[in-house]
Amino acid sequence: MQATYDIHRSYEENYQEGPFITERPPARSPVSKQTFLGFSVHSLLGVPAGPLLNANWILAYADLGFDLLVYKTVRTVATPSHPNPNCMFLNVYQPLVETDFGHPLMASMTPPTSKEMISITNSFGMPSRDPKLWQADIAKAKAGLVSRGEGQVLIVSTVGTPGQGDLAADYAKAATLAVEAGADMIEINLSCPNVVTGEGSVYTDPVFSAQISQTVKKAIGTVPLIIKIGYITNPLTLAEMVRANAPHVDAISGINTLSFEVVNSNGTSALPGRLRSGVCGAAIRQCSMNQAGRIIQLKQKEKYDFAVIGVGGVMTTSHIREYQNLGVDAVMSATGAMWNPWLAYDWALASAAS
Ligand SMILES: Cc1cc2nc3c(=O)[nH]c(=O)nc-3n(C[C@H](O)[C@H](O)[C@H](O)COP(=O)(O)O)c2cc1C
């Protein structure tokens, strides 16, 4: 089963040679414009941080009809990727629920029979080029989008790196560099399960996450700020986190992957050297939709003024519709868009027909 990201190759090969697109959908006919965080967009469908490794990937997915394009998380310091394999299929064909947390999942390189059922584990460790290199590449992505006309936005995902002084200040520095390079919007990743240091779990700390959001918002001014969060089991902690961050953010995006121990059929670690890794795709849709629903309820109750971006397990146009019915402002697909690059085309057809 062909994906635009080849899981048999290294991150570096995918960065240099991808995306691997065999068949392109026909160009879509002009669609009515909508607005997202003040920007005019063709649709409210995008690809979240991860699958779009650089400008070539951003522009390829723009041409596939995805309109909210998130550039994979970058840092203020060059950081290598974890070694290959970085992605494997999971033998999980039921939605994951909270009682599954803490139990290992089994991985293999064999895909399920249907694309809709794909769940994967991924572990990259948020690799980054040196800022000078990614700034030049973001400028290339932006120029490419501008040449395609209005209707598609470039969101750059950034993260602070421990060991670079004050973590909040480093988040702000990365975001500022991305804005200087041409980002329309900034997303800060508060939630990567594949890093062993603190920046991965910041979203579980209401006070510290809000301190970071506030510092970044101050640095980027009117540029919209999105925070990317993971799944929070305790609804009270979720409410507290949302309350603390609400004054500083323009949107909340989630979820990031769920962290699980992932093993081979013989019980050894599937991704050598990494006991735990991130789980995404079909299996996390239920958790993700539950959390999106909770955030929308909090938003309505407290009259918060931020947008909600639904991410997690969107494999088909029906899943996009399910998220819309929850009341999200935009929907993004990572795993689904990797294995079904025609998803945006299918969505444009479905939207035109409804
Ligand atoms: C290949 C891959 C790489 C990812 N890298 C990042 C990343 O760098 N930063 C981030 O915030 N999320 C990253 N993610 C998480 C996605 O943005 C998304 O939250 C998660 O995959 C759930 O969506 P999905 O079920 O549509 O895959 C990555 C996901 C995938 C599949």
Explain what this protein looks like in three dimensions.
Strand 9 (185-189), helix 5 (206-220) and strand 10 form a beta-alpha-beta unit. With 354 residues, the chain is α/β, with parallel strands linked by helices. The chain is 33% helix and 19% strand. The protein has a single domain (11-353), classed as TIM Barrel (Alpha-Beta Barrel). It is globular. It is built from ten helices and 15 strands. The site of flavin mononucleotide has 27 residues, from strand 4, strand 13 and helix 9.
Distance between the termini: 30 Å
Structural category:
alpha/beta
Helix content: 25-40%
Give me the side-by-side strand order of the main sheet. Answer: 3-4-8-9-10-11-14-15
Q: Number of DSSP helices?
A: 10
In CATH, the homologous superfamily goes by the name: Aldolase class I
Q: Mean pLDDT, nearest integer?
A: 96
If you compute it from the alpha carbons, what radius of gyration comes out, rounded to the nearest whole angstrom?
19 Å
Give me the strand/helix succession: HEEEHEEEEHEHEHEHEEEHEHEHH
Strand segment count: 15
The percentage of residues in β strands lies in: 15-25%
Query: In CATH's first tier, which class applies?
Result: Alpha Beta
Major beta sheet summary: 8 strands, parallel, barrel
Number of domains: 1
Low-confidence runs of at least 5 consecutive residues: none
Say what the CATH topology is: TIM Barrel
What general outline do the C-alpha atoms trace?
Answer: globular
Bound molecules: flavin mononucleotide
Which architecture would the CATH scheme give at its second level? Alpha-Beta Barrel
